[in-house]
Amino acid sequence: MANDDVTPRPAPREVRIDKRQVRVLAHPLRMRLVGALRVKGPATATTLAELLDTNTGATSYHLRQLAEVGLVVEDPDRGSGRQRWWQAAHDVTSWEPTDFDDDPDARAAIEWIQGDQVRLLVETAERWFASQHEWSPAWRDGFGMGDIFLTIPPARLEELKAEVWQVLERYHREATVADSADSADPQARPVQVFLAAYPLREGLQ
């Protein structure tokens, strides 16, 4: 638990992505760059290239493309001379799929991003299945997936998602405070939580 004198960090800085941003973001390396900066914090193009197993030139180019639309920014407190440090401009990128119904290119981009999220979920689950025997019983019980079937109108589904997201944001804030406090739990590890809702497949309705 955080000390009483630690001021909680505000809710994650969230941006409602626009059409130009979504078209720029829909690229495998750019998605990974934004994700790495959000997880690892500020970094140089060289450090990111090593982390993501790519070359510095491509990394620098794609960082500049992301910067042009405000998805990454230079870290003003770091860097000297020609060395540039970059940081994610936001903790959370949000959108509604219908935001792009009038722009076929942006709609195709957001569909690619959603597909990439599913691929990431599959890769994450497969890595967990392959390595779960190396983790403690507490972590093996903590990790994993579950599902539930609902019959619900779209407005209530939006309310459900918003309420669950508020819970996730609260835990995010509390974890950030604990990470910066002397009482941070030494057993804490980075965890990625996915939130998804899809129609029940045909035949089970």
From TrEMBL:
Annotated SUPFAM superfamilies: Winged helix' DNA-binding domain
Domain of life: Bacteria
Example GO molecular function: DNA-binding transcription factor activity
Gene3D superfamilies with a match to the protein in the record: Winged helix-like DNA-binding domain superfamily/Winged helix DNA-binding domain (1.10.10.10)
Domain HTH arsR-type: 20-115
Entry's transmembrane regions: none
CDD domains xref list: HTH_ARSR
The protein's name: Transcriptional regulator
Organism: Micromonospora arborensis
